[in-house]
Specification:
Shape of chain A: globular
Low-confidence stretches of chain B: none
Order of helices and strands of chain A: HHEEHHHHHHHHHHHHHHHHHHH
Structural class of chain A: mainly alpha
Order of helices and strands of chain B: HHEEHHHHHHHHHHHHHHHHH
Mean pLDDT of chain B: 88
Number of helices of chain A: 21
Helix content of chain A: over 70%
Strand order of the largest sheet of chain B: 1-2
Oligomer: heterodimer
Strand content of chain A: under 5%
Radius of gyration of chain B: 22 Å
Mean pLDDT of chain A: 89
Low-confidence stretches of chain A: none
Largest sheet of chain B: 2 strands, antiparallel
Strand content of chain B: under 5%
Helix content of chain B: over 70%
Largest interface: A-B, 31 and 32 residues
Distance between the termini of chain A: 39 Å
């Protein structure tokens, strides 16, 4: 095997190796564990960047760095991995964000702080699951990685979380699992109705499953329903979002960052990678409904944000809205819309990841998540953190020139002209409603800034010397994200140039 | 056919029954040596037993690739199917011996010799079971497995619940045997044969050796009775009532024996009866198994939700697991050979994987039980702080039993699930999914207790070497299957009973 064939496996499994090493280190060596976590996630990042550099951008439609070997012969599942222009940005986002989380956790650990071993081992295990999801090209392999994130995230929330942590953790766990069972059902249904063009048997291979008609449109629609349940819960779309505010709210900082930054993207990625290309007819039938739910998610998320008093729950609900834009983009089934969706995912990962870092830092200092308790006057007490918060919040509301803008505005534009055969009038009303959503988004974000940052700081906080401004670990963890927010805003082609080739290939199925 | 009257030793294929001969020798050796052992050296019996198991395993290995052996006039057949089960039983027995040594030393001291004697006797029955292709041999094998079980269930002689366990098990077990014998007698009446292949021939051609009124109803009754009998052995609902009480009262290694070894042996016999003798009547028994599977899964899992005792939890969960194993049996009626073959392989793989993860969980329970003999789930609170390794092993086995992805248990469920979907029995797949979710909840809640609660008692739990060896070995096996599911699934399709 050549280096290119090993590349993705290295990205995916180096963190797992790191987790294994940490697991066997003696308990009295927390510093060594931190170092191993740093090396393992750093190595994954390095190989992720190598993949980015070696990627042939002119061929972004083609899966690159592919490896395809035998795995489970008895069910025809293969170890088939590869990335195209859609998967690559998400893969890089995954390894980058995890690495930053590990840096952040070098110095700032959630309570109980003595369990260093479990924390880093679980974060690395999580990374393997996330990276594997974005690289799998076999349905069984995809499913394994998809589910692999559940147990680590469950324990991250349940052990290091706050308030109703165990309730939130099990809710997250069972909810996601419920959806993925239907997804598995859909995978198996496709498998049994498929004909492998090479062997003549059944296949789980995502590439070979393209263009199969699975015995009729009715059946495809049914399978799509199964996949939809699995993916929509993960995204999450209204009305399947109820696990999200609890899980995000009660998770420790790093858990929230990874949950919002990457785990949610797995759902939207599932739509783009599996549901759309494998079941194009059903996708067309379902698109108006998905678009409708997406718009409801946008408006509902924004309205809920207006009602929140807890900063982490507010950011969690804002994710529902932002992922609504992503799903609206996907539901148009156009190259514009899907490009916007992938861009929106990366931008949301960077921005909301950063927002959760900030919320975590505030919680760390003020020991409360209530907006009206922390604020007003964060800018006065903590000028640097306050300023960063304003910057990121404004990026989140979609100010032109920052990363949040492109994904949303292009998704709305795409809704003006959905793919042929979709109800134009309906999608244009979606566009109008989505537009109203952006106004609401701006409203709650500005209001948040006002309540939190502006004004005169409370007496009890002003005199508290333990509340300090940005720490070195935070500088290291945050600056790449802040640079990213600005860079993607100024030069969005950095993403679009990667995705466009792959997306146009996909969108051709719907024209 | 009982035509063969002359019997001579030279007509017996001694090589084929060498594993059984070695175990028999070990049984006798334990019985004799034990007489001369002082009380404090009783655990030397474990060494003899282990040597017997090892010897039998080597003998069995020497038979690999030598084709199918038939001896005792076709009563005893050694094919791939039998070979697979025999290796499983030997491995399970070895693990059980590792798991029992220290526990017995502490709990039942001076009657340990009898324990090994009985365990090996049961093992002998288990080894004969998958080779028996004759109703009488099958019955004898089954009783040889069960009767020692009655005795070792009551091994804590001065413990009321242990006595209850033994009596309950005995009464239900004898009742099951009687019912099964009645069914066997009926089928003998119809076919004039006890040989499974001969029965199959008569039933499929419907050329009954003598005129008989309503042969179909008699065959139906017979199938029903035999299945009910086996239903007790594998503790399928509604024949499961003995299991939780018996497991709870017995010494923990015995509960492990009953829920793994004895159950697997029951399934081995059940497969032979269903697929060989009654293969042509799958449309009769498959719907019955469908109902039984759905009930078994649901009742086992739902009742497991509210258990306070870890052994009872594992007992109900093992009932639930038996339900999953029954699914492939339920979907084969009137299906193509490929689907039948796949279903059969799925059931075999499930048994293999189940055996090791359940046994692993029991090994951890034994370890904790030495310090906390009440086996309460609350004893597991904060286990990760006291014994991180033990807690991790337990979590791994529990997640695997739950079918969490990507553990070995998930693959077991995946194969069964796939066979149900492939055969188009979607409702059963749906019941299975619902039950898997229920199962996840209670398995995970034990896992959560180990990691999220503060321990009520401090201090480490000393794990003796033998037990630790067993736990580590089983973790390795389950990890191996997790990473490479074909590890077991590779054997199953080759080990079909008959050419479908």
């Amino acid at each position: 095997m050549t280096f290119d064939q090993w590349l993705l496996s290295l990205v995916v499994f180096l963190p797992l190796v790191g987790a294994g090493v940490i697991a066997v280190l003696p308990k009295a060596q927390p510093a060594l564990m931190r170092l191993v976590a740093l090396i393992a996630s750093g190595a994954a990042l390095v190989f992720g960047i190598i993949a980015l550099v070696r990627f042939d951008f002119h061929q972004s439609r083609v899966f690159q760095f592919t490896v395809n070997t035998r795995w489970i012969d008895s069910i025809g599942a293969r170890y088939h991995m590869g990335v195209d222009g859609i998967a690559l940005p998400l893969l890089v986002l995954t390894v980058a964000l995890t690495f930053l989380c590990v840096i952040y956790s070098q110095k700032i650990m959630p309570k109980p702080q003595d369990k260093v071993k479990g924390f880093f081992a679980l974060v690395l295990l999580l990374e393997t699951g996330m990276a594997g999801t974005f690289t799998s090209l076999d349905l069984v392999l995809f499913f394994v990685f998809w589910e692999m994130v559940l147990v680590p995230m469950y324990f991250i929330i349940a052990i290091w979380g706050s308030e109703r942590k165990e309730y939130s953790a099990i809710k997250f766990f069972l909810y996601t699992l419920f959806g993925s069972v239907f997804m598995l059902l859909g995978f198996l249904a496709m498998y049994f109705k498929s004909v492998d063009p090479v062997t003549g048997g059944h296949t789980f291979d995502m590439i070979r499953l393209q263009g199969q008609h699975f015995g009729g449109v009715g059946f495809q629609n049914l399978v799509f329903l199964g996949l939809f349940l699995g993916f929509a819960i993960k995204v999450p779309m209204w009305p399947f979002h109820t696990w999200l505010p609890d899980a995000h709210g009660d998770a420790p900082t790093v858990g929230s960052v990874l949950l919002a930054g990457i785990l949610l993207k797995m759902g939207a990625y599932g739509f783009i990678r599996i549901a759309l290309p494998l079941l194009p007819h059903a996708a067309k039938d379902w698109a108006p409904y998905i678009g409708g739910l997406a718009v409801i998610s946008i408006l509902y998320g924004a309205l809920c944000c207006l009602a929140q008093t807890d900063i982490k729950r507010l950011i969690a609900f804002s994710s529902v809205g932002h992922m609504g834009f992503v799903m609206l983009g996907i539901s148009t089934l156009t190259d514009k819309g899907i490009n916007a969706a992938v861009f929106g995912m990366v931008a949301h990962g960077v921005i909301t990841g950063m927002l959760f870092f900030l919320a975590g830092s505030l919680y760390e200092r003020y020991h409360t998540r209530q907006i009206d308790d922390i604020g007003p006057g964060v800018l006065q007490k903590l000028p640097r953190i306050g300023a960063i918060f304003v910057f990121v919040a404004i990026a989140s509301l979609g100010l032109p020139g920052l990363a949040g803008f492109w994904g949303e505005v292009i998704a709305l534009l795409a809704a003006f002209n959905p793919a042929r055969g979709l109800p134009v009038a309906l999608f244009r009303s979606y566009m109008v409603l989505g537009g109203i959503g952006t106004i609401l988004t701006a409203g709650y974000m500005l209001w948040l800034i006002q309540r939190l940052n502006l004004g005169v700081v409370r007496e009890k906080w002003a005199s508290d010397p333990s509340i300090d401004d940005v720490r070195p670990a935070e500088v290291f963890a945050w600056s790449p994200l802040l640079v990213g927010i600005l860079a993607l805003g100024i030069y969005p082609r950095a993403i679009f140039d990667i995705t466009n080739g792959a997306v146009t290939g996909l969108a051709r199925l719907f024209t | 056919m009982i035509a063969q009257t002359a019997f001579s030793l030279s007509s017996v294929d001694l090589h084929a029954i060498l594993p059984e001969i070695i175990i028999t020798a070990a049984v006798i050796a334990v019985l004799v040596v034990d007489l001369f052992l002082p009380d404090r050296a009783k655990s030397a019996n474990a060494v003899i037993s282990m040597a017997g198991v090892g010897g039998a395993a080597i003998a069995l290995m020497s038979l690999i690739g030598s084709g199918t052996h038939r001896t005792f006039g076709g009563m005893f057949v050694l094919d791939n199917y039998a070979m697979l089960f025999k290796f499983l039983f030997l491995a399970v027995a070895a693990m059980l011996i590792f798991m029992s040594v220290n526990y017995l030393n502490e709990v039942v001291q001076n009657i340990q010799g009898e324990f090994y004697f009985l365990l090996l006797t049961a093992l002998l029955g288990m080894l004969v079971m998958p080779s028996s292709r004759d109703l009488i041999a099958l019955f004898i094998a089954l009783e040889t497995v069960t009767v020692p079980g009655f005795i070792i269930a009551g091994f804590k002689k001065r413990d009321n619940s242990s006595n209850e366990a033994a009596v309950k098990f005995f009464l239900f077990g004898v009742l099951a045997s009687a019912i099964m014998l009645f069914g066997m007698a009926l089928i003998y009446g119809v076919t004039k044969s006890t040989n499974l292949y001969e029965i199959a021939r008569v039933l499929s051609t419907k050329q009954y050796p003598m005129p008989i009124h309503h042969p179909d109803s008699v065959v139906f009754a017979s199938i029903l009775l035999i299945i009910v009998g086996f239903g007790f052995k594998v503790s399928a609902v509604p024949f499961h009532f003995w299991a939780p009480d018996t497991y709870e009262g017995s010494p923990v290694p015995v509960a492990a024996f009953l829920s793994v070894a004895s159950k697997a042996a029951g399934f081995a016999g059940l497969f032979q009866i269903c697929f060989v003798a009654f293969g042509s009547h799958s449309s009769v028994w498959a719907p019955g198994f469908a109902i039984m599977a759905a009930l078994t899964m649901t009742v086992g899992n739902v009742i497991a939700l509210q258990q306070k005792n870890i052994v009872r939890l594992l007992a109900y969960s093992s009932i639930g697991q038996a339900g999953y194993i029954l699914i492939p049996l339920a979907v084969v009626a009137n299906k193509s050979a490929a689907i039948q073959k796949e279903a059969f392989a799925a059931a075999l793989t499930y048994i293999l994987i189940y055996s090791f993860m359940q046994l692993g969980a029991f090994a951890v329970v034994i370890a904790v039980s030495r310090r906390h003999p009440d086996n309460l789930i609350s004893d597991y609170e904060g286990l990760s702080f006291r014994e991180p390794g033990l807690a991790f092993a337990m979590l791994f086995f529990l997640l695997s039993l739950a079918g969490m992805i990507p553990t070995a248990g998930f693959w077991a469920k995946f194969f069964v699930f796939r066979s149900a979907i492939g055969a188009g029995t979607l409702w059963l797949a749906a019941v299975m999914v619902a039950n898997t979710l229920i199962g996840l909840y209670y398995y995970l809640s034990v896992g959560a207790k180990m990691y999220l609660r503060e321990p009520r008692e401090r201090g480490p739990i000393h794990v003796p070497y033998a037990l630790a060896t067993a736990i580590v070995l089983m973790v390795i096996i389950v990890v191996a299957v997790t990473v490479y599911p074909d590890f077991f699934n590779h054997f199953s399709p080759r080990s079909t009973l008959i050419a479908f």
